[in-house]
Amino acid sequence: MKFGVVRFPGTCDEVDAYLAASRVGDAEILWHADADLKGVDAVIVPGGFSYGDHLRVGAVARFAPVMAEVETFAADGGLVLGICNGFQVLCEAGLLPGALLPNTSLKFTCRQVDLEVVNASTSWTNVTAVGDVLSIPAKHTTGRYYAPDATLDELEANGQVVLKYAPGHNFNGSVRDIAGVSNAAGNVVGLMPHPEHAVDPLTGSADGLKLFASAAAVPA
Ligand SMILES: NC(=O)CC[C@H](N)C(=O)O
């Protein structure tokens, strides 16, 4: 399994995503201006502040040449994971439902959160079980997941709510405690917390590695 990690101007978590993916497969960095996914089997859109978060988080990055390729790749069933700013970019691109709004505190917050697995059948959660609790760090200003009630009902009915903040851990005010969602097919997943920063017990938790191991378990 070869992972491609997209780098935009202002991305800051691509190296950790690259190192996390390298623990379970091969990885390489993909440049935003190149309309070329270099034959990878899975794409990670990582965290950071693409294009300085100007206009609106993810709003500029979704027009990068590499994103046109990511859209085609996702439509063909390719595995795509958006982490934090990557989640924001995928929502802006319409690859995932909903939007990320400023945290209710209107402040940048960095803290460890517990996430509950709601759907363990997606390409990025298949080595977990429903109800598993994953301890993963979160760090953002614009992480309050939002979608209209009718969309949320549909997402819940389709199993597209993949991860929820455990009771007491929804620090950003996300609707229905939603931390991560998938597209209808389950090959595209996005979440606000950072699994790539939780891959080694030495730094507090290796729970994040399960997302990368899930993708690696999908036949390439
Ligand atoms: N860690 C990140 O990816 C930061 C995400 C983002 N641009 C925000 O603060 O909302």
Textual characterization of the structure:
- The chain has helices at 14-22, 65-75, 85-92, 149-158, 209-217; strands at residues 2-7, 26-31, 42-45, 79-83, 99-101, 109-117, 133-140, 144-146, 161-165, 178-182, 188-191.
- It is globular and about 40 Å long.
- It has one domain: 3-Layer(aba) Sandwich (Rossmann fold).
- The mean pLDDT is 97.
- It is 21% helix and 26% strand.
- The chain is α/β, with parallel strands linked by helices.
- It is built from five helices and eleven strands; from the N terminus they run βαββαβαββββαβββα.
- The longest helix is centred in the first third of the chain and has 11 residues, at 65-75.
- Strand 1, helix 1 and strand 2 form a beta-alpha-beta unit.
- The chain has a nine-stranded mixed beta sheet, with helices on both faces.
- Glutamine binds next to strand 7.
- GO terms for molecular function: ATP binding; glutaminase activity; phosphoribosylformylglycinamidine synthase activity.
- Its main location: cytoplasm.
- Its EC number is 6.3.5.3, 3.5.1.2.
- The active site is at 84 (nucleophile), 194, 196.
- InterPro entries: Class_I_gatase-like, PRibForGlyAmidine_synth_PurQ.
Q: How many domains, as an integer?
A: 1
The first-to-last residue Cα distance is 6 Å
Shape: globular
Annotated CATH topology: Rossmann fold
CATH class: Alpha Beta
Going by helix content, strand content and strand pairing, the class is alpha/beta
Q: Specify the CATH architecture.
A: 3-Layer(aba) Sandwich
Query: Looking across the biggest beta sheet, what order are the strands in?
Result: 2-1-3-4-11-10-9-6-7
State Rg.
15 Å
Strand content: 25-35%
Total beta strand runs: 11
CATH superfamily: Class I glutamine amidotransferase (GATase) domain
Spans with pLDDT under 50 lasting ≥5 residues?
A: none
The molecules bound to the chains, other than polymers, are: glutamine
Keywords: ATP-binding, Cytoplasm, Glutamine amidotransferase, Hydrolase, Ligase, Nucleotide-binding, Purine biosynthesis
Active site: 84 (nucleophile), 194, 196
Pathway: Purine metabolism; IMP biosynthesis via de novo pathway; 5-amino-1-(5-phospho-D-ribosyl)imidazole from N(2)-formyl-N(1)-(5-phospho-D-ribosyl)glycinamide: step 1/2
GO biological process, one term: 'de novo' IMP biosynthetic process
